Amino acid sequence: MPSTAEAVQQRMQELESHLEQENPVLLSAVQSFRAIDRVAYGTGLLDTNQSFATQIPWWPLISILGTFSAGKSTFINYFLGQKLQRTGNQAVDDRFTVIVYSPEKVSHSLPGVSLDSDPRFPFYQMSHDIEQVAGGEGKRIDAYLQLKTCCSERLRGKILIDSPGFDADAQRTAILRISDHMIGLSDLVLVFFDARHPEPGAMRDTLKHLVKDTIHRADSGKFLYILNQLDTAANEDNPEDVVAAWLRAIGEAGLTAGRFYTIYNPDAANTIQDEHKRKRFEKKRDEDLGEIFLRMERVEIERAYRIIAALRETANAFGHEAVPLLQSAVRRWRARTLLADSALVALVGALFLYWSIGAGHWVGLSYEPAWLDVLTSQIPWGRDALIGVLVVLAIGTHFAIRKIAAMSVEPWLRKQVARKNPPGNLMSAFRWNTRFYRPVIIGRPIGWSGKARAQINEVLQNCENFVQTLNERYTNPKGLKESPHKPHTVRLPEDPAGVHEKKERSAA
Q1: What confidence tens digit (pLDDT) does each residue in 479-494 have?
Q2: What's the pTM value of the predicted model, to 2 decimals?
Q3: What's the rounded Cα separation, in Å, for the pair 32 and 53?
């Protein structure tokens, strides 16, 4: 059975094997993550059974958020073309559901531990995070997460995440923690609102969490705000008032720009008697659904840029936050150790001089105490033994001072880590850098050299090249014509997300 470190490297190799065919740019990104890992291993900031590459999801992620009555499950069923999620006007599911592709026609529902223990999915070790914010809840991971499989071609190569409603019980701290984690990892976030309940009082907290807390994010462009079930307002005297009410409510939450969609499910729509109004509603619905589905289909593009951004952020944070913070902690430890050593030597020296001069042990500048002559006359090797005892005592005292100095730095370092949240394990790296065999005279972390710094800078430079390559691939700014003999791809369903692909050349 492979060790944990070997298992991580094996997963990395499998990821590289897949990306070699699916997206060579992301293959290079994996190799850049490996370069950061090597430097992190050398500095002690990362254990050999860890990798920065495994801390981000590599499959395209689409998250669906909203209130319990906003029609999220109905939308998912319509998108997948089959009834997978339970639907209803009341809360029918209080867990996060991760939906992945499977070639089997029969859908399977698996407990939350299947996600918590599998690093390929976005909720890997989520039980630890839940435990931190809600003590005792981490062991109840099955109450928060579940995994479902679905044989839908629209699901190939991507993962859908359906969230529970944000009302009532869903306001628990653990649920919001999972939501924030999910939002941060997603490439596309669909935020649903219920057109049947414009501006309810209970929506204030929901609007704050789903709108106000997201509009200032650097990746705010991945949020689509959707007013669902608009067909229920078709028989109103002025259905535009419903949309205006929601726009006003969302505007008060801070969202004054961006795309706002109005849709309803064609399979579960109310009958609209007025033919003119029905055609107008259907036209607007089809246009908005088309745009939403197009964004969902192209989420792989968002994924590619998201991973490159994560690589750049990791390299930047590692080189400009984690290592400088570790270096500062090591220098503090070094300074305190040397200062304490010097102070102790000075104190012991002063006390020794005070005692020896008072006892009359000095003859001019020569130290000739009577007790030393007695010791050497009775024990031939007494002088050497005395020197050995003094050396051992000095070394032991020095290492005790090193340990105390390191312990005095740890509270400061712990506060800095909590405030800045740099990548890697700073506390473990600091303890490793202050081990007994670590020379105190060197004022830099182990493994951090000019070569290591150059490797991190090379990764940052590669990120710019990766972005340019993606731009060439997806935007074709040079206007080059696509080769008619370009190989096409056929996806294989070996992995949970259905994203493995095999290249085949056309018969031509």
Answers
A1: 555 543 343 333 333 3
A2: 0.73
A3: 9
